[in-house]
Design a protein that fits this description.
The complex is a heterodimer of chains A (about 180) and B (about 30). Chain A has helices spanning about 40-45, 75-90, 100-110, 130-140, 145-160, 165-170, and strands at about 10-15, 15-25, 30, 55-60, 95-100, 115-120. By secondary structure, chain A is an alpha/beta fold. Chain A has two domains: about 1-125, Rossmann fold, CATH 3.40.50.1820; about 125-178. A six-stranded mixed beta sheet of chain A has the order 1-2-4-3-5-6. The longest helix of chain A has 18 residues, at about 145-160. The termini of chain A are far apart. Chain B has about 30 residues and is of the alpha+beta class. Chain B contains one helix and one strand, in the order H-E. Chain B has one helix spanning about 5-10, and one strand spanning about 15-20. The model of chain B has no long low-confidence stretch (mean pLDDT about 75). Classes of the chains: A alpha/beta (about 180), B alpha+beta (about 30).
């Protein structure tokens, strides 16, 4: 794989704009962040902790799409990641997925297992057990009012852009229902 | 989509699963 020309780039891939960063020139490692984490490493790196790995590629649907990742099917985001890997000339690599990024990674691992050498799943879930659903339904209500309004706006935008079905909308927490 | 065992069984890559107890939505009790 060629060395990364710059850290942050935006490319039109798979019908959307994808923002991603590449760092270093070592063995590729793909990091997929969660749905409520800014894509730019400058604003999302932990202040304390290990340094970024030798090669890091981050991707996200360009703002504001990345912020309502949960409203976009993970299977669709899997195709986005495959397009990004193809664009970067990466056949298979080690991958880390956090939260919703981990869910995307699970889709990738079960559909294209040959694209993953090893993976780390952080706070990703293969299913949402019954106990989780009340927690999920109260999550948005627990946020400050301005963040609740923000969620309502981005879910509305997600519906407009991706044609979220009324059935899917009915499964959203009340404040997120359009 | 629920990843039931038949789906997960195709994964051959070494996998590390990390679940912390500070996640308000999915605490470690939800396994």
């Amino acid at each position: 794989m060629a060395s990364a020309p710059s850290a942050g780039q935006t490319e039109a891939l798979n019908g959307i704009r994808i923002y991603f960063e590449t760092h270093g020139t070592g063995e590729p490692l793909l990091l997929l962040h969660g749905s409520r984490v800014p894509a730019r490493t400058g604003s999302s790196q932990p202040q304390h902790g290990p340094k970024l790995p030798d090669h890091l590629a981050r991707s996200a649907r360009t703002w504001p799409v990345q912020h309502f990742a949960e409203a976009v099917p993970a299977s669709r985001r899997r195709a986005d990641i495959l397009a990004l890997l193809d664009h970067l000339g990466i056949g298979a690599c080690k991958e880390v997925g956090v939260g919703a990024g981990g869910d995307v990674l699970l889709h990738l691992a079960t559909r294209q297992p040959e694209r993953i050498k090893a993976m780390v799943l952080v706070s990703a879930t293969p299913c949402f057990p019954r106990q989780a659903r009340p927690i999920m339904s109260r999550y948005v209500e627990s946020l400050p009012e301005e963040q609740q309004e923000f969620f309502a706006v981005i879910i509305s935008e997600a519906s407009r852009r991706f044609g979220i079905s009324s059935k899917a909308q009915s499964r959203l927490p009340p404040v997120m229902t359009i | 989509m629920n990843f039931i065992p038949p789906y997960l069984s195709v994964i051959q890559a070494r996998t590390l699963i990390v679940q912390g107890d500070r996640d308000p939505r999915y605490p470690v009790e939800l396994r």
